[in-house]
Amino acid sequence: MQLNETHNPQLRSWVSSANTGKTDFPIQNLPFAIFRRAGSSETFRGGVAIGDQVLDLAQVADQALMSGLAQAALVAAAKPQLNEFMGMGRDAWSALREALSLALREGSPFVNELTSALIAQSEVEFDLPCQIGDYTDFYTSIHHATAVGSLFRPDNPLLPNYKWVPIGYHGRSSSIGVSGQSFRRPMGQTKAPDASEPSFGPCKRLDYELEMGIYIGRGNDFGEAVTIDNSDEHIFGMCLFNDWSARDIQAWEYQPLGPFLAKNFASTVSPWIVTMEALAPFRRPWHRDEADPQPLAYLDSALTREQGALDIALEVLIETEQMREQGELHSLARSNFIHSYWTVSQMVTHHTVNGCNMRPGDLLGSGTQSGPEQEEAGSILELTKGGKEPLSLANGEQRTFLEDGDAIILRGFCEAEGSARIGFGEVWSKVLPALNKK
Amino acid sequence: MQLNETHNPQLRSWVSSANTGKTDFPIQNLPFAIFRRAGSSETFRGGVAIGDQVLDLAQVADQALMSGLAQAALVAAAKPQLNEFMGMGRDAWSALREALSLALREGSPFVNELTSALIAQSEVEFDLPCQIGDYTDFYTSIHHATAVGSLFRPDNPLLPNYKWVPIGYHGRSSSIGVSGQSFRRPMGQTKAPDASEPSFGPCKRLDYELEMGIYIGRGNDFGEAVTIDNSDEHIFGMCLFNDWSARDIQAWEYQPLGPFLAKNFASTVSPWIVTMEALAPFRRPWHRDEADPQPLAYLDSALTREQGALDIALEVLIETEQMREQGELHSLARSNFIHSYWTVSQMVTHHTVNGCNMRPGDLLGSGTQSGPEQEEAGSILELTKGGKEPLSLANGEQRTFLEDGDAIILRGFCEAEGSARIGFGEVWSKVLPALNKK
């Protein structure tokens, strides 16, 4: 993916909060979300983050300041869901990005018109960015797969297919919520290893998963595969994604058809979608260790080798009830998406190679992005070695798994020499007590 | 579920083809579909089957012959998708059924008005009956689970959780099509047991699955479980469902997260949804063998014991290209939904017990409905004992798995002493050659 003037690190915006060097949302980012004024009954519409503000795309679209493909893309992006815009494809996404970059740049002729379309991010609430027709979760961190595998199958942690197949499974779209989601601790069947029968009650091993979400852009027709070199046309952008997990329910139910109730009670996305074009400066060469099998031809290409990896720094933080009162957070782990064993393009290509059709707005989870080191683990299951080694938090509290009232925050950002730092904002979501404690 | 006058086997319709005693669609059935005139550019709209005709609900709704809840339900059912009608709940479904039964009965005052709203079924084409937000596949035939388990895991066919947990997993909604669907043989990774590495190519072990589909009616709120005794409010009706499967892809990919590309290339529903109210006369007592674990409390109730099972006779037929030219079919197997280890209400209750929210129009697959006898197997994998014993078809052809050009037809009907016979029509779908034979 080529860099262009919108990536120029020298660009400054007339929105001064975009120029701090510390914001997640400088003019080089320009991520999309669906928003309205908090607590209002306004219609949700598309917005773009700039510094600490949201640019209201519906207001900008009404002013018809842009023209051609950029204006058409703007009108689509201003709707209450981004699906139509996502389905327009890369030329449209790029045209709107370029037009927004020009309009928000210092020296823009539209400062007066756009100033009235800015709303402080602190004053808005978000909706899901699009209708998610299907949600698929991958399993692309070999470090996570090995660590979790060794807990669920001590004699057989990493299965023989892992290094050949980008393992994935279908998840639940109805229970995906946007940052701010609170959900009840799930009830369910569990069976202790030494129990003769399962029992029913609230989950005792509640966990988060540090994932990236990937939104599909243009869809592919039923029966037509996306090739690895054409996959960029079909990938709109990325978000932070917390795929909540009930480990005790999972252990009892997951064989032979995979996780089900252990996962489908809640999953939470960050509001902002950072486009693949904004992420272009953070692409890195991708390679497979020589000791490992090389990918089959349909999953391999020169472009993948040159720039298949993405350098995205990730962090998980916890906010317990006690911390919330004190205004504190505790960092649980840092990792990076660059450790992913499979690339985003490989996920999309594999998913469609059998003719499976994707639709604009479909969501892929990357799987938990654990790094190679123990402190880079993307779940509490891994951090506590299966709940055996409790974590000590900075305020003196301890955790083996999550407790009622705990919130988990995921953050992510990209930094590189010669590029402006961009970020994903955050996703926050909180555990409520079970509805029916038996 | 109570019987009422709409179930009276003595009822006759002024549409004479409904009174043959052999049609799937007598006046006691009244199933819903979404249709338009074949080959036209008409708007799709709701229809009800009566004999060999479709009653065009959009035309009936415009005439405002009904009133109150029945008319409101009619207006919703006339739309291009049934989701709104499905979400109205049981009183609305019942009110419309009663009104349609009266209007289509001999002696109806509306014969003239409705005659103009009839279209021959042979002249229409169907769309999916609703937007399927999420699709979940269960695994409720213990005979199928044991037979398939013994092929995939000879030493461990039926896993310890099977008799406790209604096992299910999420499937793909985008690739679900309505009867008439043709799909390309999927490409994918497979690995022969004696091969050192996987290879990529067209599926060589393509299979069908004889399933029932269950459509959700009223949804449940995020975080709120559906109780077993309240589940009827949330279950709209049932259809025939062919969950196409690529057994060689499945064997290589399915551990540890379940089937993925082996299933998501195509699934096919019958056009007609038979409502739970129409199925009421075919409910039967449900019991669990004393030697087996009894269901946990949240999956058990007096109502389930009294009438949780459903007597639905099922049949799978094949139409090879050669048979198509001769106008022949070959029956592969007969089974019955009464063999299901878990009831429809148990599936819905289990699915939501962790707070997972269902939406109107969500689809549950029952899993392959194999009966206890070998000739009742609901997949060709079982009929050929894992592809080891080819089937001889009536016209002299043989099959181990499906070949290009083969179509599979599923049929289902209900018969009982003192009740009118009702049926599901059929679902037909066909295998096309792979796009890219490497």
UniProtKB/TrEMBL annotation, chains A, B:
The protein's superkingdom reads Bacteria
Q: In which pathway does it act?
A: Amino-acid degradation; L-phenylalanine degradation; acetoacetate and fumarate from L-phenylalanine: step 6/6
SUPFAM superfamilies the record matches: FAH, Fumarylacetoacetate hydrolase, FAH, N-terminal domain
Q: Gene3D superfamilies of this UniProt entry?
A: Fumarylacetoacetase, N-terminal domain, Fumarylacetoacetase-like, C-terminal domain
What keywords would UniProt list here? Calcium, Hydrolase, Magnesium, Metal-binding, Phenylalanine catabolism, Tyrosine catabolism
Positions annotated as active site in the UniProt record: H144
Any one GO molecular-function label of the UniProt entry: fumarylacetoacetase activity
What's the protein here called?
fumarylacetoacetase
What species is this protein from?
A: Neptuniibacter caesariensis
**Lineage summary:** Bacteria, Pseudomonadati, Pseudomonadota, Gammaproteobacteria, Oceanospirillales
